Structures are given as C-alpha cells and as structure tokens.
Amino acid sequence: MSITVYVPRDSAAIALGANDVAVAISREAEKRGVEISIVRNGSRGMFWLEPMVEVATPQGRVAYGPVDPADVAGLFDAGFLQGGAHALQHGLTEDIPYLKDQERLTFARVGITDPLSLSDYLAHEGYAGLQRAIGMSSEAIVQEVLDSGLRGRGGAAFPTGIKWKTVANAQAAQKYIVCNADEGDSGTFSDRMVMEDDPFVLIEGMTIAGLAVGATQGYIYVRSEYPHAIAALNEAIATASQNGYLGDNILGSGKTFRLEVRMGAGAYICGEETALLESLEGKRGVVRAKPPLPALEGLFGKPTVINNVISLATVPIVLARGAAFYKNYGVGRSHGTLPFQLAGNVKHGGLVEKAFGLSLRQLLEDFGGGTLSGRPIRAVQVGGPLGAYMPQQQLDTPLDYEAFAAIGAMVGHGGMVVFDDSVDMAQQARYAMEFCAIESCGKCTPCRIGSTRGVEVIDKIISNDNRPQQVHLLRDLCDTMLNGSLCAMGGLTPYPVLSALNHFPEDFGSPAEKAA
To answer: Residues of the chain whose pLDDT is less than 50?
Structure first.
C-alpha cells in the first residue's frame, strides 16, 4: 500500500531546498523498493522548519524538519514513513503549538491540500460558499458580507461590504472585479501563500464578488516577483474553467464570470488601488485623484471592486458558514481573523492566523519566540515600510484596527518586522524616507519632494549638523506630507519617521529633543 509523503511547493520551502528534498525522497524510496506517493502541498507557515516533510500515518500527519537531502537516508533508516522517531521529528503536525494555537479560517486548507487539486479543494469545503451564493440574490450576498464585518485586509481596513454595495448599485453595462495582489510590504507573504498554496479560494472569492455586484470579468494583478504564484493561479483558473466554476454558465446557473492574471512590473506604488488601475490599463503606474471613486469609475472608467487577496480569499468562508460565524471572531469593530506574518530578527518566523484581540507581545513571544539573536526586542514595525516602529512599551497593544490607530500606528496587511536592541532607529527613519523617495510615483509635490528633502534632513541630524533645528524641520516636513499627499504613499511615510523620533529620541541626539 502506497504511503503519502507531503513536501511543500511553497516558494519559501523551494528556496530552502524543498525540490531537492522531494527528489531525494523519491529516489530513496525507489532504491529501497518502497511505494510512496509524494504530494506537493502548501507550507504550514512554520518557515524555520522548512523544508518540512509530513508523512500520513493512521494517527495523523507526522512532521519532520528542516529536512536536507543529506538527511533523507537517515530518515528512512529511522522508519519515518511509519512516523518513526528521529532528531528532526516534531510529532503530529496539528499538535505543534505554533500551529495548534492558531484559528485558521482563511488559511484552513493551506498546507493540508494539494493546491492545484480541485478534488482536494472540494473535499475541504471548497466552493461551498459559491454553491450557496448562486442561490442568493446579489443584494443578499452583499448583505452577508456587510453583516460579517469583514474589512479590507490590504491596509485601509475599509468595510468590504460597503465597497461592494456601491458597485452593485452603480448602473453600467460592464463592471469589474480586481484583486490587488501587488504584495510589496516588507515582511509580508500571506497573499503569496494564498496564491501559491490555495489558489482556488481566491478564485472562488472573486467569483462570489462578481455575482454580488454584477461583474462578469475579473483580473488578478500580481507582482512579477511572484512567478510561482502566477503559474499556480493560471493553472487553477484553467482547471476551474474546465469544470464549470468559471466561464459563461457557472455551475449551470446562467451566470458569467471570467478571470485573468495580469503581471505588474514591481512598482510599490501599484499597490495603491488607482495606480494599480492605471497599470492594468497599460499606462504608467501613477496615482489618480479621487473622486471619482474606483467603485464608480474604476478600470476603463467602469464600476470596479478592488480588494486585497486576503479580503477576497475570506469571502468563501463567510458565505459557506454565514456572517454570524465569522463576525463572532475578533474584538470591537475588528471582526474575524488576520494572517499575521512574523519576519525580521525573530526566532520563529512564519504565518500566524489569529482572531483580532491578542496583543502584539503575545504574538511576538508566544508564537515568534522572541528574537533570533536572543537579544531583547527594541522595536517592531507593523504594517509594512510605511508602518510605525512600535517600542517595548507598546507591545501590549491589542491587535485591533482602532487600538492601533489610537496610538498612531496601523495593523495594515499584518506584516511585522522585528528588531533587537542593536538597531539604530535614526537609520530606520532614514530608510523609510528613502524608500518613499525611490518608490514615489512623483505626481504630488509633498511626496515627491518631501521624501527627498526628508532624507537630507535626517542625514544632517545623524551628522549632528544643527540638530535641534533639523529635528524641528523634520517634524514640519512630516506634517506637510501627512496632510498634503495625494495618497497613502506620502501620507503614511511620516508614521515610521515620527514614531522613531518620538519613541527613540536618543538615537537622534538626546532625550530633550523629543519635544523639539
């Protein structure tokens, strides 16, 4: 009888040698005359254990990792195909605390199924949401999403249902669904994992969105740096189309929805929804002034729903299990779960899906295990390169949109980059300004010129050139960028700069300069 062995095809695992491990296992089994079946699953999100190999046993899947091709013969000798003891063994995968203590809703299938197997997807609640949506009116679908409390997972946290309702009520012969998969924030990888490790859930979510607002065409805008995601999406779209889940007559309903992948050239600004639309239309990625809102005049001037990958990938479980089920997770106005991503100087980097409400400290210590260096955590940047640097005294802040906004921070896409006490926060502030200067689309003066001047001012502060006056000038410049920029690129760059100035004034000179 064939034994099933799981070796991830996620690009993080591949980068760490998963393909070579799969080949080594296959050859060793052949050499020993053992019949095995290798499934290339997604990653469980425990990146410090990658490549993590799992073996199906009567008790459940047993995990081994990180596995190197040189370890394979020893694993066979130890009887790993039967779940045998070995130095790399971690017991039953589901019992590993990092995974066991999560609340996986959007990521329920990730790491469990073969990402490109439609039968696997269907066997794990796949397309249950679409099946229900087909029997509902478009108004009822929109209301379900509204009632769930689902908010945009791309950064702005705008209620998804309100955006959908606006597009649904707009009158137009053609409407579009656009997925913003231009995941460019440092320390983020949840979008990539969905696209590579469970692409059908994104396809299903976009199809439900199409039915909800009357859109017949969808586009997934993926950054060129994600070749594995692009390949997985294209294959999954072809499979869905061949099996009646996309196309002119979805599941015999008479409803139409078509889907295509479009590749972006890697401009950070194209993560901003209007710049993304410009790029999708074949133009230079430059921010549009609003109004009009994309919901009314978006792609090619037509009403358009633009949502992030995680927002759309969460819709199927909302429809499958109902709004009340999803809304029951979380705190306050932050409903449901978010896949938090731990990166930087952290011992256990990876993905943790939890309901809103746990503290930043719980996430970094209970899941992340503290810093990889073993030194104390000094700062954590939450929400990408435009997110605030949060000091030790803010680590007990609950992960909740409103709680973060109240202290001048943002949850954003859930990415977190950890720094130990050796970090120079003046240099980190400079990095934020320089990042903005490089990635600005250049359309508005506060962002285009302000970020360039910002780098110059921070350089003067670092070199102690009339430091008090330069700190005052930097704060004034940040105020102009915050209130005068056309989009969030310039408007959010002051967050990391001011947080570094406010919480780590000693890195800019002396504590007295905090109020300068």
So the answer is: 512-516
Instruction: Report the relative pairing of strands 3-6 and 36-39 from DSSP bridges.
Output: parallel
The structure tokens listed for 493 are 């760059």
Nearest to 158 by CA among 8, 13, 293, 324: 293
Find the helix or strand (DSSP H, E) in which 342 lies.
Answer: strand 337-344
User: Do 317 and 106 contact (CB within 8 A), yes or no?
Assistant: yes
Check residue 187 and give left, alpha or beta (phi > 0: left; psi -120 to 50: alpha). left
**424/439 Cα distance (integer angstroms):** 23
Tokens of 93: 């995968």
CA distance 46 to 353: 12
How far apart, in Å, are the Cα atoms of 219 and each of 194, 195, 309, 498?
Answer: 16, 14, 12, 37
Contact (CB, 8 A) for 437 and 455: yes
Q: Are 316 and 201 in contact (CB under 8 A)?
A: yes
| Angstrom distance (rounded) from CA 342 to CA 143 | 34
Q: Which two tokens stand for residue 428?
A: 């980190």
DSSP structural state of residue 398: B
8-state DSSP, 88 = T
DSSP 239-258: HHHHTTSSBSSGGGSS--BE
75 three-state secondary structure: helix
Cα distance between residue 466 and residue 452, in whole Å: 19
Report the alpha-carbon distance of residue 64 to residue 87 in Å, rounded. Answer: 9
**pLDDT digit string, tens, across residues 416-475:** 999 999 999 999 999 999 999 999 999 999 999 999 999 999 999 999 888 899 999 999
Residue 409 amino acid letter = A
pLDDT confidence of residue 72: 98
* Residue-wise DSSP of 450-468: HHHHHHHHHHHHHTTSSHH
d(CA 192, CA 23): 24
Output 80-87 pairs: Cβ under 8 A, ≥24 positions apart: 80/53, 80/55, 81/3, 81/5, 81/34, 81/36, 81/55, 82/55, 82/57, 83/55, 83/57, 83/59
Strands 258-264 vs 304-308: parallel, antiparallel or unpaired: unpaired
How many angstroms separate the CA atoms of 169 and 213, rounded? 8
